[in-house]
Amino acid sequence: MVQARRIDGAACAATLKEQLKRRVTALAARGVVPGLGTLLVGEDPGSLRYVACKRRDCADIGIRSIGEHLPASADFDEIALAVERLNADPVCTAYIVQLPLPQGIDEAAILERVDPAKDADGLHPRNLGRLVLDISGQSDLPLPCTPHGILHLLRWAGVNWEGKDVCVVGRGITAGRPLGLLLSRRDVNATVDLCHTGTADLAEHTRRADIIVSAAGQEHFITADMVKPGAVLVDVGVSRQPVNPATGRSCVYGDFDPSCYEVAGAYTSNPGGVGPMTRVMLLENIVSIAEQAAGLRAYCGA
């Protein structure tokens, strides 16, 4: 039996980062230095690692980092003031509010205070609403990083989305829901089947899909008998097991059982697949927003 082809997200992301470096250099020649802002509240280890990775990514391609780090005791008004500072900062091209915020803080109310024009994640309610209306695919708004990364990764790997039946498992706001919006635009033209915890027979849906994108976060819950022979598997879900005493790291697992790779035609590994693409697409949003402001680019993600 032939093993499925592995689609290397890290290699694709590295190629994109080199392209972004050249675009940042072109901006610098015009006196423009893009800046990514991060608003972090508290000392959550996962959030600290995530923000540190973003800053390293920015340094790699010449993007300036602007940080707002508040104590875990910060109240709503203090966090809202930090948002307003980033909104008003001309050095900050766009920024992210790192979630989760401390317990008791209304995250939705904080996120709605973000200037939509500085929405680095592409997840501001106004920008998501505009994405709903964007049928053509010629949008001037930042795109949600994980769905955009998935779209780009499969195109880079030579997978054609047009006319394909795509089963998306998971309806989360960062992946499943916006992915359906991107895939159904005319420039992609896929048919999307969105499944979730209310789906009565998930296997019935996955077995007829040409492409399965799973963002459920349940370790190895999709098995080989649920996969159509030759299908492309995109693993977005992350499950973490306790820290390995030998390495000091937690073990990360995806949604697809390894047995699926004996049936599928191609797959993205987890880790090393969609994760690097999500990170590089945040950089893409920052650079695109800066290029739009400088009159060098008409559309984000074009």
Low-confidence stretches: none
Number of strands: 11
CATH C-level class of the largest domain is: Alpha Beta
Largest sheet: 6 strands, parallel
Discrete helix count:
9
User: Distance between termini?
Assistant: 39 Å
Strand order of the largest sheet: 1-11-8-7-5-6
What's the structural blueprint in terms of helices and strands?
Blueprint: E1 5-7, H1 9-29, E2 35-41, H2 45-61, E3 64-70, H3 76-88, E4 94-97, H4 107-111, H5 125-133, H6 145-156, E5 165-169, H7 176-183, E6 191-195, H8 202-206, E7 211-214, E8 232-235, E9 239-244, E10 249-253, E11 266-268, H9 274-293
Parallel strand pairs: 1-11, 2-3, 2-4, 5-6, 5-7, 7-8, 8-11
Antiparallel strand pairs: 9-10
Describe the protein.
The protein has 302 residues and is of the alpha/beta class. The chain folds into 2 domains: 89 residues, Rossmann fold; 132 residues, 3-Layer(aba) Sandwich (Rossmann fold), CATH 3.40.50.720. The strands form 3 sheets. Strands 1-11-8-7-5-6 form a 6-stranded parallel sheet. Strands 3-2-4 form a 3-stranded parallel sheet, sandwiched between helices. It is globular. It starts with a strand and ends in a 9-residue tail after the last helix.
Label this structure with key terms.
alpha/beta, 36% helix, 2 domains, Rossmann fold, 18% strand, 302 residues, three-stranded parallel beta sheet
What's the quick description here?
With 302 residues, the chain is of the alpha/beta class. It is 36% helix and 18% strand. The protein has helices at residues 9-29, 45-61, 76-88, 107-111, 125-133, 145-156, 176-183, 202-206, 274-293; strands at 5-7, 35-41, 64-70, 94-97, 165-169, 191-195, 211-214, 232-235, 239-244, 249-253, 266-268.
